[in-house]
Design goal:
- By secondary structure, the chain is α/β, with parallel strands linked by helices.
- It contains 15 helices and seven strands.
- The protein is elongated.
Length: 289
C-alpha cells in the first residue's frame, strides 16, 4: 500500500529543490486546503509555476498532479474537523452556484459508485440477508437515516429486523447481545468513520455473524472487517455528508430483495392496502371530473 503522502513528503524533503520545498511545506501545514486546489491554484499560492507543481507530483511517484491530489483527498477526508470542513467548502465552492455545484458533485459520486460496483459482492449480500434468521441494521450519527430507510422496507419483507442507531458503544452492545452465526449484520460507515460502528461490526463478525459493510472503500476499517463490502462513494459538503450514492445502493438492495420475495410481499401489501384504506392512513385522491 502506498505510503501516506505526508510521511512521503517528510522523508523526501532533504532532496527537494527550493521551489519543491515550498510546495511540500504548504501541503504539510495546510493539507486540508491543498487537497482541493488545482495545480495552478497551488502554484500561485506558494509562488511557483503550475508546471513545477506537476513535475513535483511526478517526482513523488504519482502519474501526475490529479493522482497526487486524489491521494491527498483520500487521506484528509477522515481527518477534517467540522470547522475545517466549512473552510474547505468555502474554498471549493467560492462564488459558484451552490445548488449546481452540489448536484454535480452528487452525480459524480453516483458515477464513481457505478464504476466500482461489485456484482458478486452485491449478490452475496442479498443471499446472506435472505438466509439470515435475524437482520441487524447498524448506522449511527449521519448514517442513521440510511439504517432507518433500509429497515423501514425490510420490515415489510422479514419478521426479525433490528435497526440499531444508538451512538453509544455500550448501548449498542446491549442491543446486539446474542448475535450469532445465523444472523446478518448490515453496517454503514463513511468519513468521519464511527468508532461505535466499527467496534460493533468487529464483535458481530467474531461471533460468526455475516457482516455486510456499506462504506466508501474496501480499505476502510469497516470494509476490512466485513464479509461482503458494498462500495458507495461519499463526499463532504460543509457539515453535510453526501449520502446520495449510499442511498442508491440501499435502493438496489431493497429492489433485489423484493424481487426474491415477490409472492410474500404481494400478499403483505394486499393486506396493508385494506388497513391503510380503512384507517385513512393516506390522503384519498378523488377522481378528476
Amino acid at each position: 500500500m502506498r505510503q501516506d503522502i505526508l510521511s512521503l513528503l517528510k522523508a523526501k524533503e532533504p532532496t527537494f529543490s527550493k521551489g519543491q520545498r515550498r510546495i511540500a511545506q504548504y501541503i504539510l501545514e495546510s493539507y486540508d486546503k491543498a487537497a482541493f486546489m488545482t495545480a495552478n491554484t497551488l502554484g500561485k499560492t506558494v509562488g511557483i509555476s503550475e508546471s513545477t507543481v506537476v513535475r513535483f507530483a511526478v517526482e513523488l511517484g504519482y502519474d501526475g498532479y490529479p493522482s497526487m491530489q486524489k491521494a491527498l483527498q483520500e487521506m484528509v477526508v477522515n481527518r477534517l474537523t467540522s470547522v475545517q470542513r466549512i473552510e474547505v467548502t468555502h474554498d471549493r465552492i467560492g462564488n459558484q452556484n451552490i445548488l449546481t455545484t452540489v448536484l454535480q458533485s452528487d452525480m459524480e459520486k453516483l458515477r464513481q459508485t457505478s464504476e466500482m460496483a461489485d456484482n458478486a459482492a452485491f449478490d452475496a449480500a442479498v443471499n446472506a440477508i435472505l438466509g439470515a434468521e435475524r437482520v441487524f441494521i447498524l448506522g449511527v450519527r449521519s448514517a442513521a437515516p440510511l439504517a432507518n430507510f433500509l429497515g423501514y422496507y425490510l420490515n415489510y419483507m422479514f419478521q426479525n429486523v433490528h435497526i440499531l442507531t444508538a451512538s453509544g458503544t455500550g448501548e449498542m452492545f446491549e442491543r446486539i447481545v446474542g448475535v450469532n452465526s445465523r444472523d446478518a449484520v448490515i453496517a454503514f460507515s463513511f468519513p468521519r468513520y464511527s468508532a461505535t460502528t466499527l467496534k460493533t461490526a468487529q464483535y458481530c463478525r467474531s461471533t460468526g455473524a455475516t457482516v455486510i459493510g456499506v462504506t466508501d472503500t474496501k480499505l476502510s476499517s469497516l470494509g476490512q472487517c466485513s464479509d461482503h463490502v458494498l462500495v458507495a462513494k461519499s463526499d463532504m459538503v460543509s457539515l453535510v455528508d453526501s449520502l446520495v450514492a449510499p442511498l442508491s445502493v440501499v435502493n438496489a438492495l431493497i429492489v433485489a430483495l423484493a424481487a426474491k420475495k415477490e409472492k410474500e410481499i404481494s400478499k403483505t401489501f394486499q393486506e396493508l392496502e385494506h388497513i391503510w384504506a380503512e384507517y385513512d392512513v393516506y390522503e384519498k385522491q378523488e377522481d378528476s371530473v
